[in-house]
Design goal:
This protein is α+β, with helices and mostly antiparallel strands. It has one domain. Helix content is about 40%, strand content about 35%. Strands 1-3-2 form a three-stranded antiparallel sheet.
Amino acid sequence: MVRRKRILVHEFDLPFDDNPMNWAGGPISEWNKTPKGQWVIANTKPSYYVSPGFMRRRVYKVRITADLDEKQQTYYYLRWPK
């Protein structure tokens, strides 16, 4: 059985707006062009989440996660340490 684990691969803040997805496309597209983004897309299907961030700062937090097996996790953490 292959064990998969959901890990956070990228996150960023967005300005507070009625619809944060209006603003999320640009930063997500830019991240997709990075070596890390290209590797994640080639090896798994990333998930995108938007949640209220710090309401005092009036921002949303966008998190990109990926489900990686143990071998992929090892490569990921060696290539991009925390």
